[in-house]
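User: quick one, fold this
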Amino acid sequence: MKIPVTPPDFQSLIDHLIKNYPEKIGEIFSSSIKPDPKGKYYHWDKLRHLKLPPLISNHEDWWLAIKIARKALYKNIPHSGKNGDSFVFGEPDTVRRLLHEIDVHGGGELKATEQVANPNTRDTYLINSLIEESITSSQLEGAATTRKVAKEMLRQKRKPRNKSETMILNNYHAMEYIKDISNESLTPELIYELHRILSDNTLDDPDTVGKLRISDDIYVGDDRDATIIHIPPKAKELQNRIKNICNFANTTHPTEFLHPVIRAIILHFLLAYDHPFEDGNGRTARALFYWSMLKQGYWTMEFISISRILKSAPAKYTRAYLHTETDDNDVTYFIIHQLEVINQAIKDLLIYLGNKSKEINTVEQIIRKSPRLSKLLNYRQIALINRALKSPDAIFYVESHRGSHNVTYDTARTDLLKLVKMGLLNKIKIGKAFSFTATDNLKQKLETIE
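Assistant:
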């Protein structure tokens, strides 16, 4: 990966103006240039190639005017980079707009969807989102398996067959753990336990699981071309840095408001930046984001997968870190990237729920024509029939049905056996277990039940 060009030094630009063009100083300081021109929080690496705005003679002057506007917004994050300088962030119009979209779409609109609002179906869609995040977060860290196989493993609750499947199963357990501790304050011990859950049986050295790294011979690189992207802080600093991250996660100031979503994103950034573990830092950082969102009342975030969006454009994820590190520890770059990711994940989920609603409605239309069917089938059986209609070759198991809807084994077994008795599923014995498949002409059989 190409490392972004480091911006010109702010103080050097000021000194250059004072020495050579003192008449420009007042003009630049009083300019109306925003910190995010045209709604974009440009890094120097991009800005230096853009067309200059009116009355600005060169890109260095433009950058200086932008940095002046940004510095007026900066707030310190109580955590420092490797050089000892504090991280900072700002809330330009771009950030406020994206936060508003999250509050609207991820709050009221998502809560109002039938699948999330209905207690009967909520667990089903929550399980789906946990599975999706578990798979894609692990794939971002190198897990190599298909989504189909991974979903089958999680829904059937079978044991993982390799390291990749173990990573995914661990991630699933970690997401469940986050829900259990979402009301607790963050402590170093909770972070170590979260890393232990995520990394169990996946690291080359089992003794490093759930423990801070002790080596400084570590870096973050681009596997495609071996470019060193980031060298994290020294191992001897990590214990104090972890405590500092926990203080940031837990502290609220009555006179200084920090938007909960920004707090969660910064927490994600800081853990990944410090890279406190030998491996699994990305998964742990993203898990802490979810913990922070749930802790602060954003329970609808359980239904979205940020890793799925990150996986579709991993270079942008990495570049957001690089832009921060090469420009005065300005975390605004990472905040904006993550806000865009969250918004995209919410939009994708709303589209998905809309499509699923249409699919369920198709089955329900058939059921409405039959008073008997409407009394016989519950929402779990309707969802299974819908899937069977879409994928006639699909195979169902008691464990997979149980895992899909978060119900007991007996409830799942009763659901499937009832569909067999109605002639809608076939029961097949494979070894000691039973599997179920859709009968031929399933739709026609549904329509003939009166």
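User: anything notable?
Assistant: The first helix runs from residue 10 to 20.
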